[in-house]
Design brief:
The chain has 5 helices and 12 strands. The protein is of the alpha+beta class. It has a single domain, classed as Glucose Permease (Domain IIA), CATH 2.70.70. An 8-stranded mixed sheet has the order 1-2-4-11-8-7-6-9. Strands 3-12 form a two-stranded antiparallel ribbon. Strands 5-10 form a two-stranded antiparallel ribbon. Strand 7 and strand 8 form a beta hairpin. It starts with a helix and ends in a 9-residue tail after the last helix. The longest helix is centred in the first third of the chain and has 15 residues.
């Protein structure tokens, strides 16, 4: 059995015990599915290459739809990464998204879905990168895995220490502003990782198609914890 299948089984086993990662009332809040593939012709290069315009684009979509958040992106082949050289090399382009993005307003609180400890944190201050980032280490039935939170407020890193215990439901972070979140519209990148491969404060959130099998096996569907995608509907 693959690593992702083992961890996925555990996450399903304990699915009723996870605390919401972001505030969301299922009885009246709505979610807008976001499409960042080549089929989205409204997202022009002009918008993508201007963080302020891109932020306005996201905010207008949420306002028009009446949705609290925009959401989606796991295993989505995206065109938006062409806005940064971070995702392009001489041999390949990284375009396949490995987490779920929750798009909202800066300052939105982020909570730990289950207990654990701070594995690592960093300010990945490159254009298009995670910006302020926190990685937590968890265990279920003795098996370890990690949750990664990207595009946070830089203030959330102040006073953190590796190894510090984090309680279930503890407020750990907030959606960051563009200048501190890698120059993106405010959102949370939430990702699950089984093997951090000796990395600290960072792990690829996007991979090439050639590496798809490897990375999807190491990064299970984050909605196993979020349980939000079922509420994402075109409005």
């Amino acid at each position: 059995m693959r690593n992702s299948e083992i961890i996925a089984g555990l996450l399903k086993k304990y699915s009723n015990s996870f605390y919401p990662v972001v505030p969301f009332n299922r009885t009246h809040d709505t979610l807008l599915p976001m499409n960042f593939t080549s089929s989205n012709h409204t997202l022009t290069d002009e918008i993508l290459n201007d963080t302020e315009l891109f932020t306005g684009y996201i905010q207008q979509l949420l306002k028009t739809s009446g949705a609290l958040y925009g959401i989606g992106g796991y295993n989505e082949y995206r065109t938006i990464y062409k806005r940064s050289n971070l995702f392009t090399s001489d041999t390949t382009d990284r375009r396949l998204h490995l987490g779920i993005d929750i798009w909202g307003v800066a300052g939105t609180p982020v909570y730990a879905p289950l207990g654990g400890m701070i594995h690592s944190f960093a300010f990945n201050d490159n254009y298009g990168d995670y910006g302020a980032t926190i990685v937590l280490l968890h265990q279920l039935d003795g098996l370890p895995f990690y949750s990664l939170y990207g595009h946070l407020s830089l203030n959330d890193l102040a006073g953190l220490q590796e190894g510090k215990y984090i309680s279930r439901g503890e407020e750990i972070a907030h959606f960051g502003l563009p200048h501190e979140n890698g120059h993106w519209p405010p959102h949370l990148h939430f990702q699950l990782v089984i093997n951090m491969e000796m990395k600290k404060g960072d792990y690829p959130g996007v991979c090439s198609l050639e590496e798809k099998e490897k990375y999807l096996d190491n990064c299970p569907d984050p909605d196993l914890i979020l349980k939000m995608m079922q509420f994402a509907k075109e409005i």
